[in-house]
Amino acid sequence: MAAAVELSRGAVAAMSRMEQGLRPVLQVTDVRPADGAGGDRYLVALSDGAKSEQGMLVASMAHLVMARAIRVLDYLCIDTRVIIVEQLEILQINCALIGTSNTHGRPLSLTPIAALSPYKGRWTIKARVAAKSGLQHLSNDRGEGKFFDFDLLDAQGGEMLAKCFSLAAEKFYGLIEVDKVYLISRGLVKPAQEPFNSDYELALDASASVEFGFSKTHPAALLNVEY
């Protein structure tokens, strides 16, 4: 039996702050191909046992997607939210989930989609993407940009359309995938501009938080639903 791996707790937060000289031991809790990357890049979820963050393997590392415990030897961090792994060492191919990491280091409070409104302060929703549009190119008097939207459904039956423009469209289009579950926060809730199954819609800019919502990473015991 392989020896237990000791993760580098606190490393994910330090990497997000772009601290240098780190060689942390992390666990890969999910892997999937990145949309539009021609099958040679992979989005991953990286956990230090207390906190998880989105990551990406560069093309030269794509053959290592089966690794589950790794030591990161070199990396970049984009916009403090996506860790791009450039070099790594495989420690274990298969290992059980270590720790109960979440993106806040404490029980995560979720808001049902039905409870969202322009008057609600901080919130985080956990929802599945039911549908996703293509990436559209827009042109108007203010210049050119990109746009896409996606339909969100949560466990309570709430539904809302989310829209991404410009930098947010470029940032999140490759991340969002139909039938995947995400944790979303820091978006703007506003009255819906077109008929839909909700009175409101969600507008996301580049400062929004969109993260994988894996059931293993966020077990039910850690999720408190707020109304």
Automatic annotation (TrEMBL):
Any idea where the Replication factor-A protein 1 N-terminal domain is? 7-91
Name of protein: Replication factor-A protein 1 N-terminal domain-containing protein
Q: Which UniProt keywords apply?
A: DNA-binding, Metal-binding, Zinc, Zinc-finger
Among the GO molecular function terms of this UniProt record, one is:
zinc ion binding
Origin: domain of life: Eukaryota
One annotated GO biological process: DNA replication
| Segments crossing the lipid bilayer | none
Please report a single Pfam family linked to this protein: Rep-A_N
Q: Does the keyword DNA-binding apply?
A: yes
Q: Name one GO cellular component term.
A: nucleus
InterPro entries on file: NA-bd_OB-fold (IPR012340), Rep_factor-A_N (IPR007199)
The record's similarity note reads:
Belongs to the replication factor A protein 1 family.
